């Protein structure tokens, strides 16, 4: 006959086994590929109401299916493996066809890319040519021009990447660029209507949360965050989903074509289901969406390091503040 003393150990064992079974069943998320994070499906409020960004409104509900996303931006080391394996030449490294630029001196049509050059004094902020230069020989391997290299920057995000370069790398890895809606959902980390990826306070407890511009834009970067240009990926705290650098560091290409009034169509839609951006009908759309802002973002000029903000760029143009990260479907 079982007594209380002999029955109690049996009950403990059963309780432990049941607890283990419940834990296993509740943690049903699939295992993430190396370097990626699982993003559960769900709904969130996309967009941003901000006086500097009318194209990010109106706010609207979006439903997203689960997916995996890179925890960090693609690094120089990552991209070097792709180039070594395939011999790929980025858009910035390719010869330029003079027929594409009629009237331009062929001597000026040499491979290169856009580089930020900090002016020595205050400038007219309506003229971005005051801090941008087309630098011959600038590329992902030579971020500031032919005399620069990647020594010590292996873990920095790869830059001087045109949209075509990002999609070529994605094809090689078996992944893809995220949609704008996927990217924002992941960047918010479950904080559906927070202003920043970490909440509503730009500097919680005075802490700098992202690699952005401090000082008087664009001539006086104090470098208070320790980085005048790109920072190694993962230099700042991740969001609640475990993603790094979704604010600042470098802009990130996504798959969507850019239209400034695209969000207005969702005013009367209860929930947009996995939107993939507008269609490029008859080639009328010329730019692709970029998300996340960069080390050049500041509330004095470009406040678009907020998850709901929208950037855009010519898919054939590269610069030293644009990179990317990729996603992967569950099946």
Number of distinct helices: 4
How far apart are the first and last residues' alpha carbons, in Å? 54 Å
Across the major sheet, the strand order is 12-11-9-13
Q: Please identify the structural class as seen in this structure.
A: alpha+beta
**Could you give the order of the helices and strands?**
HEEEEHEEHHEEEEEEEE
* Uncertain stretches: 7-26
- Radius of gyration, taken over Cα atoms and rounded to an integer in Å: 23 Å
Please write out the topology:
Blueprint: H1 4-26, E1 36-39, E2 42-46, E3 60-64, E4 67-70, H2 76-86, E5 112-116, E6 132-136, H3 163-173, H4 180-188, E7 215-216, E8 220-221, E9 251-257, E10 272-273, E11 288-291, E12 311-313, E13 322-323, E14 327-328
Parallel strand pairs: 3-10, 9-13
Antiparallel strand pairs: 1-4, 2-3, 4-14, 5-6, 7-8, 9-11, 11-12
Detailed description of the structure:
This protein has helices at residues 4-26, 76-86, 163-173, 180-188, and strands at residues 36-39, 42-46, 60-64, 67-70, 112-116, 132-136, 215-216, 220-221, 251-257, 272-273, 288-291, 311-313, 322-323, 327-328. It is an alpha+beta fold and 331 residues long. The protein has a 4-stranded mixed sheet with strand order 12-11-9-13. A 3-stranded antiparallel sheet has the order 1-4-14, with no helix packed on it. A 3-stranded mixed sheet has the order 2-3-10, covered by helices on one side. Strand 7 (215-216) and strand 8 (220-221) form a beta hairpin. The longest helix has 23 residues, at 4-26. Residues 7-26 have low confidence and may be disordered.
């Amino acid at each position: 006959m079982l007594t209380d003393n002999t029955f109690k150990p049996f009950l403990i064992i059963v309780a432990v086994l049941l607890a283990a079974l419940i834990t296993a069943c509740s943690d049903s998320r699939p295992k993430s590929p190396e370097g990626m994070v699982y993003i559960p499906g769900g709904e969130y409020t996309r967009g941003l109401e901000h006086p500097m960004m009318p194209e990010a409104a109106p706010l609207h509900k979006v439903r997203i299916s689960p997916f995996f996303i890179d925890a960090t931006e693609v690094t120089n080391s990552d991209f070097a493996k792709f180039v070594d394996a395939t011999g790929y030449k980025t858009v910035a490294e390719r010869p330029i066809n003079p027929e594409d630029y009629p009237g331009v001196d062929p001597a000026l049509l040499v491979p290169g890319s856009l580089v930020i050059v900090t002016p020595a004094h205050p400038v007219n902020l309506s003229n971005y040519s005051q801090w941008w230069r087309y630098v011959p020989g600038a590329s992902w391997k030579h971020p500031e021009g032919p005399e620069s290299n990647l020594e010590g920057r292996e873990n920095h995000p790869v830059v001087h990447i045109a949209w075509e370069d990002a999609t070529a790398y994605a094809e090689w890895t078996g992944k893809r660029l995220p949609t704008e809606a996927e990217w924002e959902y992941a960047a918010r980390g479950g904080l559906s209507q927070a202003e920043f990826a970490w909440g509503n306070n730009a500097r919680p407890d005075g802490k700098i949360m992202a690699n952005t511009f401090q000082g008087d834009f664009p001539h006086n970067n104090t470098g208070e965050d320790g980085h005048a240009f790109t920072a190694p990926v993962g230099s700042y705290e991740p969001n609640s989903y475990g993603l790094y650098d979704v604010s600042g560091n470098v802009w990130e290409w996504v798959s969507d074509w850019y239209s400034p009034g695209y969000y207005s169509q969702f005013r009367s839609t209860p929930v947009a289901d996995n939107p993939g951006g507008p269609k490029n009908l008859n080639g009328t759309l010329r730019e692709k969406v970029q998300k996340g802002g960069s080390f050049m973002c500041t509330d004095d000029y470009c406040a678009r390091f907020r998850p709901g903000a929208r950037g855009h760029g010519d898919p054939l143009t590269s610069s030293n503040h644009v990179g990317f990260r990729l996603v992967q479907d569950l099946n």
